[in-house]
């Protein structure tokens, strides 16, 4: 299992470092309250509400939080040191300063904070709590809470497995500057997603295997549709004959179908659809607020080859997908 543990040394930017932290949280299999309890038992404070806020950002958290988080997730001492060292190096390389509301969040009394409902947490923040903070810091904390409340309303995010931060990274353009994807109209509301380099479509197995692979378009499964989220990103929704509605997303560096939001196990389920540089009507499927795209490293690949996360390259054949109207509306 240790061999599968996310490695912070793979991160080249603060945004990628935060993506690795989200992967480590998913790898641990622990809830935010469980991580908090393990950290407290080890003598390291790690308020779960502070951790929720930190994992929603693409900016580096404080060094103490990184150390407590890595240890609580089950990293050995040398592993914790690797996380701290990588955070230091990225902070120096990118001139990073911790967000001011990290300190404010930790100063809040947190014993009655909701565990899995960021909306409830945001509702409770302005009303009735004793912050014991200077006026300026208190104002910053309230402003941050208001921003996250608006984000929760807009995206339906869950505190248990937050998607990548709505705050753009250094390597990603502002969502408002990204043109909307122009997909062909579909009478059924569904689209089949085809890897141009291989001619095969996105699909999963019909059993409990949720990993997304490429297969012949005739065998594609389940039905998929593309839903704009409203902040320049999209969800790729699924309709499964047994499990019902779901979302395609990212888990431990792999592409999986699962329930949407906190009900499922994916770390992120929002994507940018970017026009490919190869011409035509193809798109890159970029994980929102990251430099990683869905694709195949060595196209065309074999039948059943799992999709992977790769550094985005608009000219890479293995990252260009065609979104085609799916005439099929029957849940097969």
UniProtKB/TrEMBL annotation:
Residues 92-127, 158-180 are annotated as: Disordered. InterPro entries: Ricin_B-like_lectins. Signal peptide: none annotated. The chain crosses the membrane at residues 133-151. It comes from the Bacteria. Keywords: Membrane, Transmembrane, Transmembrane helix. This is XRE family transcriptional regulator. It comes from Bailinhaonella thermotolerans.
């Amino acid at each position: 299992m240790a061999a599968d543990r996310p490695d912070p040394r793979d991160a080249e930017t603060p945004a990628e470092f935060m993506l690795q932290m989200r992967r480590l949280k998913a790898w641990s299999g622990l809830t935010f309250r469980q991580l908090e309890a393990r950290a407290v038992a080890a003598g390291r404070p790690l308020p779960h509400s502070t951790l929720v806020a930190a994992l929603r950002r693409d900016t580096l958290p404080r060094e103490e939080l990184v150390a407590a988080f890595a240890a609580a997730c089950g990293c050995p001492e040398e592993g914790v040191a690797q996380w701290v060292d990588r955070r230091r190096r990225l902070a120096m390389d990118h001139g990073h300063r911790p967000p001011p509301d990290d300190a404010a969040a930790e100063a809040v009394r947190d014993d009655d904070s909701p565990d899995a409902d960021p909306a409830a947490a945001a509702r409770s923040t302005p009303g009735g709590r004793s912050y014991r903070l200077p006026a300026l810091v208190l104002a910053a904390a309230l402003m941050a809470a208001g921003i996250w409340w608006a984000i929760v309303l807009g995206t339906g995010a869950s505190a248990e497995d937050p998607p990548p931060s709505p705050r753009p990274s250094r390597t990603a353009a502002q969502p408002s500057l990204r043109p909307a994807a122009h997909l062909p109209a579909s009478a059924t509301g569904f689209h089949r997603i085809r890897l141009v380099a291989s001619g095969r479509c996105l699909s999963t197995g019909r059993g409990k295997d949720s990993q997304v692979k490429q297969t012949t378009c005739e065998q594609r499964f389940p039905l998929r549709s593309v839903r704009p989220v409203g902040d320049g990103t999209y969800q790729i929704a699924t309709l499964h004959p047994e499990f019902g509605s779901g979302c395609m997303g990212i888990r431990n560096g792999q592409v999986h179908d699962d329930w949407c939001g906190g009900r499922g196990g994916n770390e992120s389920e929002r994507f940018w659809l970017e026009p490919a540089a190869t011409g035509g009507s193809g798109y890159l499927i970029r994980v929102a607020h990251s430099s990683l795209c869905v694709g195949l490293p060595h196209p065309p690949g074999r039948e059943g080859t799992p999709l992977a996360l790769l550094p985005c390259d608009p000219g890479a054949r293995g990252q260009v997908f065609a979104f085609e109207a799916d005439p099929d509306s029957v849940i097969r």
